[in-house]
UniProtKB/TrEMBL annotation:
Family statement: Belongs to the DRAM/TMEM150 family.
Keywords from the UniProt entry: Membrane, Transmembrane, Transmembrane helix
Membrane topology category: Multi-pass membrane protein
Domain CWH43-like N-terminal: 10-234
A GO CC term attached to the entry: endomembrane system
InterPro entries: CWH43_N, DRAM/TMEM150_Autophagy_Mod
Positions of transmembrane segments: 12-37, 57-77, 98-117, 123-142, 163-188, 208-226
Species whose genome carries this gene: Melipona bicolor
Protein name: CWH43-like N-terminal domain-containing protein
Subcellular location: Endomembrane system
């Protein structure tokens, strides 16, 4: 390991996210069911994190996970950028990589919004966050799939590029089904508490289809992040460099003024005896 290396073994980051994100979902779901806040059937992920204390646990862990995901997005962006410049790959690759960075950070920001703005508190912000999270994440996966094909064969295998394309397609289908069936189910709903949705409340089948595809989409997100593991083995992060620019003219003038003031003060304090 080089002395300037600051972070190594970055391939553990996707593995940590792959384990921690579903674990938080399952933990909050179990707590919500045990406390009677949701039914044990098929609630939305956010339904299981609506009331305290599970909402507090969900928000705390998801905020940390969102920060780690943002770091992963930036590392991937820097990796593709380095490969593009080193091997002089196609000129369109940096554009795709740039958009991937935007979509990835948008998705992580939306994830944080979903965790901190519960649907029972600020429903509009919660839904906007969900759209940014799943919509931005799906767009990120597609742009990364395109980048993977551009990086072949130097920076990515063709099999991995096809896998990412398949996962992107799956996420797109799940996202569309979740959105459409969720809206239709809500229009058909006649109950009083959507967190406890029963068959007699109307729109039950559409609701189940929406929640199941949301969970499947979340699992696909985790699997997609896991695909970065092998590529991150060769990535190293060095210590950040802090550049401190001094205004030498200003400092010289200030030093001169202080010197003059000191000299004048010394002359006033001196008493001459004849």
């Amino acid at each position: 390991m080089d002395k300037e290396d600051f972070l190594v073994n970055l391939h553990y980051l996707p593995i940590i996210l792959f384990i921690s994100l579903p674990s938080v979902f399952i933990l909050t779901y179990v707590i919500a069911v045990l406390l009677g806040h949701v039914e044990a059937g098929f609630p939305y992920i956010s339904d299981a994190a609506t009331y305290a204390p599970e909402s507090c646990i969900f928000a705390q862990f998801i905020n940390m996970i969102a920060m780690l995901m943002s770091f992963v997005v930036y590392i991937r962006y820097s990796q593709v950028k380095e490969c593009s410049s080193t091997f002089s790959l196609q000129q369109s690759l940096p554009k795709w990589n740039h958009w991937a960075l935007i979509f990835g950070l948008t998705s992580t920001f939306g994830l944080s919004m979903v965790a901190n703005f519960q649907e029972t508190s600020v429903i509009v912000v919660h839904f906007i966050g969900a759209l940014l999270c799943f919509g931005g994440g799906t767009a990120y996966f597609w742009t990364q799939a395109v980048c993977s094909f551009y990086l072949h064969p130097l920076g990515c295998s063709l099999r991995l590029a096809h896998l990412r394309t398949a996962l992107s397609t799956f996420c797109t289908v799940c996202f569309v089904i979740t959105l459409i069936t969720g809206v239709l189910a809500r229009l058909a709903y006649k109950g009083t508490n959507p967190r406890k949705w029963y068959k007699e409340d109307g729109g039950w089948e559409l609701h189940v289809a929406s929640t199941i595809t949301e969970w499947l989409c979340a699992v696909a997100f985790c699997v997609y992040i896991l695909t970065f593991t092998e590529e991150f083995r060769d990535v190293r992060v060095t210590h950040p460099k802090v550049v401190y620019t001094l205004n030498r003219t200003r400092l010289s003038n200030e030093a001169l003024n202080e010197s003059q003031d000191s000299a004048m003060g010394h002359s006033r304090d001196t008493t001459t005896i004849t």
